[in-house]
Design a protein that fits this description.
Layout: H1 3-9, H2 14-27, H3 35-43, E1 51-55, H4 61-67, H5 73-81, E2 84-87, H6 95-108, E3 114-118, E4 121-122, E5 131-132, E6 135-136, H7 137-146, E7 150-154, H8 155-160, E8 173-174, E9 185-188, H9 195-208, H10 221-224, H11 228-231, H12 235-239, H13 250-254, H14 272-275, H15 299-302, H16 322-327, H17 330-348, H18 352-369
Parallel strand pairs: 1-2, 1-3, 3-7, 7-9
Antiparallel strand pairs: 4-8, 5-6
Length: 370
């Protein structure tokens, strides 16, 4: 059955399908004129690659996110039509039958299938901390990656090690990019990854036959090219110096900035404010909770404590304008954030008290001088 027939049987009109293609082009930061090309690529039965989705050290949050995506339902249909040949969370087969299905798909589509990895890969003690079908995750990954056209790491765990890699990281958890070599790898971090970004990435691959441009962390620029802070609906309150000081206070009810409550939006790159979650209904900051930086490497350590305020950023507040913040202070802000991450790593090793004491003495000296 063709995609058009599948859509018709599900009550999706041609007009709705083209609207979906337009929405995907917007997510990919492409002109609306690309919508017909996207539709053609999705309807081309010969152009849909096999997808093998493997899961290791994870909570299945990324699988659950895409399975529960409802905007639009066509996204789920497209993924079904893409021939997901192996995905533990949804496949009926189990045990030997499941592994045989994976092996057959890999052999049949050698060099053509997309390999999607969810969860971190433990490497300590020869990888014994995560085994599937009698073999380690690291061996499964290397074997599957060898025959893949490209490897997609979904979620922070697969991208950078995520929660399992947090200090002290007893299992030696790592991200896909630290293990796979010789194959194109793209990261879609987040906790969980936004399902719209997964669909958009696959569509980009179908339309252009290649992966999209990525940043230094191998994240596609269409989804991770701007800071959350740049597009946040509370940005105006930040620039005006209007902050929430306590959960549930009047400022919180009015939707003021959550910077003082630990929001990590100023140092996190992701498109959460523009595509949101729950069918585009909302996202954490819009719902009143600060960003925890889950799209960044090592966020469990560098962004902690999640409810702790970031270091003071010179020039931010009512006395500064947004243009000055973005242009003149970018270097200073980056330096402050880098120091913040380093201090958190030191804190995990029990050395932060000494550092904080030195800063306290320094501050008292400056206050005495004033």
């Amino acid at each position: 059955m063709s995609l058009r027939e599948v859509l018709r049987s599900c009550g999706v009109s041609r007009r709705e399908f083209l609207q979906y293609c337009t929405a995907v082009s917007a997510t990919l930061a492409l002109p609306q004129t690309f919508a017909p090309q996207i539709a053609e690529a999705l309807e081309n039965e010969d152009g849909r690659p096999s997808v093998i989705w493997m899961e290791f050290q994870s909570c299945s949050g990324d699988s659950e996110a895409i399975l529960r995506s409802g905007r639009p339902k066509i996204g789920e249909i497209v993924l079904d039509v893409l021939s997901v040949d192996y995905m533990e969370v949804i496949m009926a087969a189990s045990g030997h039958l499941a592994e045989e299905a994976k092996e057959q798909a890999m052999e049949k589509n050698m060099g053509k299938y997309l390999l999607v990895i969810e969860g971190a890969i433990p490497v300590n003690d020869d990888g014994v901390y995560c085994c599937v079908a009698g073999d380690t995750a690291i061996n499964h990954l290397k074997k599957a990656a060898a025959g893949a056209a490209a490897v997609i790491a979904v979620g922070n765990c697969a991208s950078f090690g995520g929660i399992p890699a947090g200090h002290p990281n007893p299992t030696g958890a790592k991200g896909v990019q630290d293990i796979v070599s010789g194959k194109p790898v793209v990261n879609l971090p987040g906790c969980p990854c936004n399902a719209d970004n997964i669909t958009a990435l696959v569509v980009h691959y179908l339309v252009f036959g290649d992966l999209p441009a990525v940043d230094r962390h191998l994240r596609p620029k269409f989804a991770y090219g701007k800071r959350i802070h740049d597009n946040c609906e509370r940005r105006g309150h930040f620039d005006a110096g209007q902050y929430v000081d306590a959960w549930g206070d009047d400022a919180h009810k009015k939707g003021w900035c959550l910077y003082k409550m630990g929001c990590k939006g100023p140092e996190t790159f992701h498109n959460c404010p523009t595509i949101r979650f729950n069918d585009g209904l909302s996202w954490p900051v819009m719902a009143g909770h600060g960003c925890v930086g889950c799209a960044e490497p090592g966020f469990m350590d560098t962004m902690a404590p999640f409810y702790g305020r970031l270091p003071n950023i010179p020039g931010f507040g009512v006395e500064s304008q947004a243009t000055k913040i973005g242009v003149k202070l970018a270097g200073a802000v980056a330096a402050v954030f880098a120091v913040h991450g380093i201090l958190n790593m030191i804190r995990n090793k029990g050395m932060v008290k000494k550092v904080e004491a030195e800063h306290l003495d320094h501050d008292k000296t400056e206050e005495g001088g004033k």
